[in-house]
User: Which sequence fits this backbone?
């Protein structure tokens, strides 16, 4: 009973999603969380260069295109995070000697871009029909000046926050797949944020279920 | 009874070389005579990269050690490698620090320059940290511009330092909107044997802690700058950020945390570098990064944070 | 310059604070005066340059062979990797290739920060290093393959090419690459009638600067040679020098290189002893392993014979289940 109450308390930004938006790619999704929007296309398994091939698993490539279009070091970092997340979810050993490309296009960033991109990537992967161990959900959090933890902060809250977190959980045991923080914070705040996000990730999984039900005849 | 039966059956089945080697390595671990060889100070051929078993079947080699609660180089799961620190070995840099975590060698050199502050932030100086993974430190890196991996490490290190508020950028400003210090910290990895991020943070903090700035006089009318190198003020620092990294080995029932992983362990855990890095400064967390490797439950996450905290005390 | 988006960049217009110190404004003559004065003091001690070299092998765990060389304040670390197939090549090459890369650390020079991307000097040094060590390696033994040699200059205090060649030679021997002889190198800066063997940075810099008004000898010479064979592998001269002067310099440098050999030999011998010990441990372990293997094999044989086939198949199935 308390859990249900908890769930009611944590509200996520309104999510809207459309699958199969791109006709040429194997899987694609556009997701808006509040005002933040990302578009992702997934292609694969494809042939790749011999030097990248691995006999154990598929080679996963993640490309992150910013709105401005100019690459920078922090973008490589975002790519790395999404890549590591997808890699742990995809059953790579089923597609040896091949490559999978995930291309992310940032459309609007009003806070929580990365969690939006991760969720969108999950939906696009579902759409592409690649075998996955589990689905994953990302939730963003912020700690404000007074030490309160805010779930899914707005743009203004992100700007004023002392610390920001992004967490990605798997759907099986709600274990942490990926997590990273910005700013300085106390241990208690971190744990509170982690707990809240873990609870909130259920909402994202429910959302996935709804979307997949809606598109089940297509997928 | 069934268990014993199983064992016998298994023994008979071991005809392939790989299987025999597994049996052997198990045997070795159980032999007390060899216990000494498994401390990491004693580099033994059995832990070296030339071990035939490791070459033939690295995954089985690794798991057969992990199953026995020991790491291939003889450390316990929560044991660090020896750390060596050598400060100001390089005369050409303003300050420098050489750090060794076991075999991993990282060297950080700082350079001071002067520039006008940014228009949107006229009271702040600049701190530019870059991590260079030069091709000589590992066969995995090729010459050329920094790889994606190098950029990720660069970003992680600079985020940790910036988030920790280790130095106040306002201290680097000399005259508002006119002149400020630019602090270039170049960290070079000379030998990459895992856990580069921790070593980088140690090298960076050590060289920043020993840094002193020459006094500068700026004439606002003639815009003339004079630097007095004999009169130096040491840079104010806040706390001491310490990063602790773990590799997470995805075991069937429970993931295993390996403190201060070396390259082989990082590879086996499937991440690009260490999987979780926890940084503390002044009793506050200034960065938790988890990527790749196995999944973590709440308790394990807490355990990692606790272990990292104990290190800072 | 295009912006390097793979690194963090500082502001475009930043300059080293040393530009604003009184030392920076010193003229050539003043610097020369300082140098000669310092040198007069130094001459009294008559130091032996070859003794001032520190060398060590096996510094980098991940490399096949590696070496660290320190000459005066110059510090160079060099690593050599396993031969690999030459990338992007269609034709078969009978001789193996050596790929060299010399890089300065951004903080290696005392005057200003070096840009992290390789510049012209890096490339020139890489080429010079390749030319110097190529004749020493038995390249015919690994056709169609390439050996990577990476040298990294951690601190530059003059004669960095000589240090890089020494380090590369040692790293190649450490990696057990077949070579004709030990390679040693030394350098010299010449300024008028003064000769600075193994110059430091300021001596080198002054010798390189040309004085248009006066027609005097000035320049830097780096010479590398295979001492046992008495062959010179490379001779690099920058600056303008008279023939007599060059010949005299070469004689001195040759002597220097020869003097360096016992030093290098010592390091190599130490390395060999270490490797022999390692080999012994390896052999012993292999023997132990074999004994255990035999023991186990006999045990299995026995138990195979003793137990009935039925029992075996039972245990076999229980294993499967």
Assistant:
């Amino acid at each position: 009973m308390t859990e249900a109450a908890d769930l009611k308390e944590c509200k996520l930004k309104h999510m809207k999603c459309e699958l199969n938006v791109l006709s040429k790619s194997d899987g694609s999704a556009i997701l808006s969380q509040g005002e933040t929007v990302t578009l992702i296309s997934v292609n694969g398994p494809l042939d790749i260069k011999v030097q990248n091939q691995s006999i154990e698993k598929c080679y996963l490539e993640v490309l992150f295109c910013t709105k401005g279009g100019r690459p920078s070091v922090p973008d490589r970092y975002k790519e790395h995070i999404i890549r590591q997340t997808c890699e742990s979810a995809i059953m790579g050993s089923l597609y040896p000697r091949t490559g999978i490309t995930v291309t992310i296009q940032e459309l609007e960033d009003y806070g929580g871009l990365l969690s939006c991109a991760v969720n969108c990537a999950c939906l696009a992967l579902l759409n592409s029909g690649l075998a996955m161990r589990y689905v994953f959900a990302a939730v963003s959090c912020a700690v404000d000046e007074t030490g309160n933890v805010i779930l899914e902060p707005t743009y203004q809250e992100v700007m004023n926050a002392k610390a920001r977190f992004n967490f990605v959980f798997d759907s099986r045991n709600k274990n942490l797949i990926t997590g990273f923080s910005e700013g300085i914070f106390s241990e208690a705040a971190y744990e509170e944020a982690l707990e809240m996000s873990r609870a909130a990730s259920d909402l994202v999984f429910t959302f996935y279920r709804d979307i997949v039900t809606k598109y089940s005849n297509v997928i | 009874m069934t268990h014993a039966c199983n064992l016998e059956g298994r023994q008979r089945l071991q005809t392939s070389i790989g299987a025999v080697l597994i049996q052997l390595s198990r045997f070795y671990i159980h032999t007390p005579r060899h216990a000494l060889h498994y401390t990491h100070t004693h580099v033994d051929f059995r832990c070296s990269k030339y071990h035939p078993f490791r070459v033939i079947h690295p995954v089985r080699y690794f798991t057969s050690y992990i199953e026995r609660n020991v790491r291939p180089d003889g450390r316990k799961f929560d044991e660090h490698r020896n750390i060596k620190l050598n400060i100001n070995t390089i005369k050409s840099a303003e300050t420098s620090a050489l750090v060794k975590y076991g075999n991993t060698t990282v060297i950080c050199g700082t350079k001071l320059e002067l520039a006008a502050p940014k228009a949107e932030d006229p009271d702040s100086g600049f701190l530019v940290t870059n991590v260079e993974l030069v091709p000589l430190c590992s066969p995995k890196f090729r010459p050329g511009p920094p790889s994606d991996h190098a950029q990720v490490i660069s970003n992680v290190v600079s985020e940790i330092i910036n988030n920790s508020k280790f130095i106040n950028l306002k201290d680097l400003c000399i005259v508002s909107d006119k002149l400020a210090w630019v602090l270039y910290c170049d960290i070079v990895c000379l030998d990459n044997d895992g856990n580069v991020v921790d070593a980088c943070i140690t090298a960076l903090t050590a060289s920043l802690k020993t840094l002193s700035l020459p006094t500068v006089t700026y004439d606002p009318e003639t815009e003339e700058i004079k630097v007095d190198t004999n009169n130096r003020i040491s840079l104010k620092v806040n706390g001491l950020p310490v990063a602790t990294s773990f590799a997470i080995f995805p075991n069937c029932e429970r993931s295993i945390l390996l403190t201060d992983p070396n390259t082989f362990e990082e590879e086996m855990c499937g991440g690009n570098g260490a999987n979780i890095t926890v940084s503390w400064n002044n009793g506050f967390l200034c960065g938790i990064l988890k990527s790749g490797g196995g999944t973590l439950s709440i308790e394990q996450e807490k355990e990692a944070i606790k272990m990292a905290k104990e290190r800072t005390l | 310059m295009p912006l390097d988006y793979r690194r963090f960049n500082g502001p475009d217009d930043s300059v080293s604070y040393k530009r604003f110190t009184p030392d920076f404004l010193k003229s050539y003559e003043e610097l020369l005066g300082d140098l000669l004065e310092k040198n007069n003091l130094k001459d009294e001690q008559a130091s032996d340059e070859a003794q001032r070299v520190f060398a060590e092998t096996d510094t980098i765990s991940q490399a096949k062979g590696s070496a660290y060389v320190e000459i005066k304040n110059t510090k160079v670390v060099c690593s050599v990797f396993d031969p690999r197939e030459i990338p992007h090549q269609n034709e078969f090459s009978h001789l193996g290739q050596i790929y060299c890369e010399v890089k300065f650390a951004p903080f290696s020079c005392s005057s200003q920060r070096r840009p992290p991307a390789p510049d012209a000097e890096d490339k020139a040094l890489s080429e010079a290093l390749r030319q110097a060590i190529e004749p020493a390696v038995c390249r015919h033994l690994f056709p169609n393959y390439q050996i990577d040699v990476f040298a990294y200059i951690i601190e530059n205090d003059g004669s960095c090419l000589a240090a890089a060649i020494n380090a590369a030679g040692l790293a190649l021997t450490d990696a057990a690459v077949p070579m004709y002889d030990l390679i040693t190198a030394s350098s010299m800066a010449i300024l008028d009638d003064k000769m600075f063997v193994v110059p430091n940075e300021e001596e080198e810099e002054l010798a390189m600067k040309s004085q248009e008004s006066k027609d005097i000898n000035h320049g830097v010479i780096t010479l590398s040679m295979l001492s046992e064979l008495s062959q010179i592998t490379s001779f690099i001269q920058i600056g303008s020098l008279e023939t007599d002067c060059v010949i005299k310099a070469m004689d001195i440098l040759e002597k220097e290189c020869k003097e360096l050999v016992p030093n290098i030999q010592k390091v190599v011998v130490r390395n060999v002893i270490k490797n022999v010990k390692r080999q012994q441990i390896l052999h012993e372990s292999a023997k132990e392993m074999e004994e255990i293997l035999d023991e186990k094999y006999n045990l299995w044989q026995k138990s195979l014979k003793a137990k009935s086939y039925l029992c075996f198949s039972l245990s076999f199935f229980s294993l499967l289940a």
